[in-house]
C-alpha cells in the first residue's frame, strides 16, 4: 500500500484573466492509502487543489501542468472516484430531500444499484458513520439533525460510491472541539477500514498532526514543503513552517501569522 495514488507535476490553476494563479507549479505525489494533510492560511490554494483533484473547478479556470493517476489505473471519473466533504454540510445536503434519499443517491447512480438496494446500503452507511437510529434517520430531513450529525451524513454520502480518494475540505472547522475530534476519529477509521486515501484540508496544524501520515504546507499558491508529520514537525525545512509550528494553532487568523513572520 505504498504505491503512488496521484502525481501532480507543475500543476497550476488560474481562475480568470489578469488574476494571480491560485496554484502555481505544484509538484506533489499522493501515496495510495495515506492520510495527507493540506495546511495553509486562507487563500493559499487548498480548496483549489481539492477542486482540481476532484474535477470540480469552475468553468473558465485554466489548468496547467499534469495530473497522473497510477493508483486509479484509469482516467478519473468525477463523482465516482472521489468523495468530497466540505465545511458546511448545509451546502452539500439538500434541505428538501430525506437523509435516506441523499445517501442512497450516490450508491444508486455510481454503483448501479436499484433504489431498494441503495436504501439498504444507505442505512448501513448511516450505521458506519455512527448515526444513532439509522432506520429512523433515513426518513429525517437535514434540519432535524445537529451540525455534527449532518457532517456524519455528508461523510456517509461522500463514501456511498466507494471512492478511492476522500477529500475533507475544512470538514471539521465549523464544529466545536469535541465534535471535531469525533469526526476526525470517524474519518480516520473509515479510510483505514476501506483503504481509502485521505486528503485532510485544514487551517489547524495541531489537529492534523494528531492523526495524518504526512503534511503538505501551502502558502500563496505554492507548496512550501511536504513530508512525514514527524520530520515536518521536528525539522521544518522552511521558516514559514517553523513559525506555524511555533504559533501551533489555527491559521484562520492571518494577523497571528503577521506577528510571527515579518
Ligand atoms: N471560484 C473562484 N473564482 C475566482 N477566484 C477564486 C475562486 N475560488 C478561489 N479563488 C481565489 O483563489 C485563491 C485560492 O483560493 P482557495 O479557495 O483555494 O484558498 P484556500 O486555501 O482554500 O482558502 P480558505 O482557507 O479561505 O478556504 C484565492 O485568492 C481566492 O480568492
Ligand atoms: Ni478553502
TrEMBL record:
The keyword Electron transport does not apply. It is an enzyme of class 7 (translocase). Keywords: ATP-binding, Cell membrane, Ion transport, Membrane, Nucleotide-binding, Translocase, Transport. Its EC number is 7.2.2.11. It is found in: Cell inner membrane. GO terms for molecular function: ATP binding. The keyword Cell membrane applies. Its main location: membrane. InterPro entries: AAA+_ATPase, ABC_Ni/Peptide_Import, ABC_transporter-like_ATP-bd, ABC_transporter-like_CS, P-loop_NTPase. It catalyses: Ni(2+)(out) + ATP + H2O = Ni(2+)(in) + ADP + phosphate + H(+). SMART domains: AAA. The complex is composed of two ATP-binding proteins (NikD and NikE), two transmembrane proteins (NikB and NikC) and a solute-binding protein (NikA). This is Nickel import system ATP-binding protein NikD. The lineage of its organism: Bacteria, Pseudomonadati, Pseudomonadota, Alphaproteobacteria, Hyphomicrobiales.
Amino acid at each position: 500500500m505504498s504505491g503512488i495514488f496521484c502525481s501532480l507535476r507543475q500543476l497550476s490553476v488560474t481562475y480568470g484573466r489578469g488574476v494571480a494563479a491560485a496554484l502555481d507549479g505544484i509538484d506533489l505525489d499522493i501515496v495510495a492509502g495515506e492520510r495527507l494533510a493540506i495546511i495553509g492560511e486562507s487563500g493559499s490554494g487548498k480548496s483549489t487543489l481539492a477542486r482540481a483533484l476532484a474535477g470540480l473547478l469552475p468553468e473558465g479556470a485554466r489548468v496547467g501542468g499534469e495530473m497522473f493517476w497510477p493508483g486509479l489505473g484509469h482516467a478519473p471519473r468525477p463523482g465516482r472516484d472521489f468523495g468530497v466533504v466540505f465545511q458546511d454540510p448545509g451546502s452539500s445536503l439538500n434541505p428538501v430531500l430525506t437523509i435516506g434519499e441523499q445517501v442512497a443517491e450516490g450508491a444508486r447512480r455510481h454503483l448501479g444499484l436499484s433504489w431498494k438496494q441503495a436504501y439498504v446500503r444507505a442505512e448501513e452507511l448511516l450505521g458506519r458513520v455512527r448515526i444513532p437510529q439509522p432506520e429512523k434517520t433515513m426518513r429525517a430531513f437535514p434540519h432535524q439533525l445537529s451540525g455534527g450529525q449532518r457532517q456524519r451524513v455528508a461523510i456517509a454520502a461522500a463514501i456511498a460510491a466507494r471512492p478511492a480518494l476522500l477529500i475533507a475540505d475544512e470538514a471539521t472547522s465549523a464544529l466545536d472541539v469535541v465534535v471535531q475530534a469525533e469526526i476526525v476519529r470517524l474519518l480516520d477509521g473509515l479510510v483505514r477500514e476501506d483503504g481509502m486515501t485521505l486528503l485532510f484540508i485544514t487551517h489547524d496544524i495541531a489537529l492534523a498532526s494528531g492523526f495524518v501520515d504526512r503534511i503538505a504546507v501551502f502558502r500563496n499558491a505554492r507548496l512550501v514543503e511536504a513530508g512525514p508529520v514527524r520530520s515536518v514537525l521536528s525539522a521544518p525545512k522552511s521558516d514559514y513552517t517553523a513559525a506555524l509550528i511555533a504559533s501551533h494553532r489555527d491559521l484562520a487568523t492571518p494577523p497571528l501569522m503577521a506577528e510571527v513572520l515579518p
